[in-house]
Write a structure and sequence with these properties.
The protein is mainly alpha-helical and 261 residues long. It has 2 domains: 168 residues, no CATH class; 92 residues. 72% of the residues lie in helices and 0% in strands. The chain is globular. It starts with 8 loop residues before the first helix and ends in a 5-residue tail after the last helix. The relative contact order is 0.11.
Length: 261
């Protein structure tokens, strides 16, 4: 059961599943992350930028998938109506090898962390990455509305914490703006799920995964233009480019296909 030990493979097989969803993941996560790396760096070489990106994403997803695995194999035992993402054979393998699975994951994360610390001396990013374990420990042990702020923090760490690897001037502003690019809309959509029984979000236009997404990015794009007029900085320029990128992607997707990505 190699999926339990391999970063990205577990996500692909249990969360993405189809080629279309994998492509969407590349478009909304991998490409934007590396795009951000190309702008927010301290004069690093292309090789260093790529190395930072690969190591950073590897660490984030290796730890993130620990939370996925625990949720899919342990948390379901406490739920009345669990969502089964693993086959009976996979669950059986997990029960027999859970200690080796977590050991391999944590050893791999530790090795990557040591490499990042030795070569890049970036404790802030390592702190953010390892906070995933604490956040998931809380997330997987509660099943109520308090999942929502924890979900927001998890998505923020996954999408935005890689900025810390580059420690740019004006980093704080860039980090806050990046939160609006994905974590905010993702959390709004999560709030609209029936299990949380939040009528306000269920009826909100922006929570419609087909049309709401491009409308959200259109509104965000207008805000970004205002920010550019007020103060044209590296952060606001990149933020505007992100808004254009996501608006075009979400609009075209809403017009071309009916599925939700």
């Amino acid at each position: 059961m190699i999926l339990f030990y391999t970063p990205f493979l577990y996500t692909i097989q249990t969360r993405l599943k189809s080629k279309a969803h994998v492509l969407s993941w590349l478009v909304i996560y991998i490409i934007p992350v590396f795009f951000c790396f190309s702008f927010f760096n301290e004069g690093d070489s292309v090789t260093t930028i790529i190395l930072k990106g690969v190591l950073g994403i590897l660490l984030i997803y290796n730890l993130y998938e620990v939370g996925y695995i625990y949720n899919d194999a342990e948390t379901i035992k406490k739920e009345k109506k669990p969502t089964y993402r693993l086959s009976p054979d996979s669950l059986d393998y997990y029960e027999k090898n859970k200690y080796s699975i977590y050991s391999v994951r944590f050893v791999a994360a530790l090795i990557i962390s040591i490499i990042i610390f030795i070569f890049f001396k970036n404790v802030g990013f390592l702190f953010a990455a390892w906070s995933i374990i604490i956040l998931y420990a809380i997330y997987n042990n509660i099943r109520n509305i308090f999942n929502l702020p924890i979900h927001f923090l998890l998505v923020t760490v996954r999408f935005c914490s890689l900025l810390i690897l580059y420690s740019p001037i004006g980093f704080g502003c860039a980090f806050i703006l990046m939160i609006f690019i994905f974590p905010v809309i993702n959390t709004l959509e999560r709030c609209s799920e029936k299990r949380f029984d939040l009528a306000l979000f269920q009826n909100m236009t922006l929570c419609n995964k087909k049309d709401g997404r491009y409308k959200y990015y259109l509104a965000l794009l207008l805000v970004s233009f205002v920010l550019l007029i007020i103060d044209t900085t590296q952060a606001t320029v990149v933020f505007t480019m992100y808004c254009i990128y996501f608006f075009i992607y979400r609009y075209l997707l809403s017009r071309i296909i009916k599925d939700e990505f």
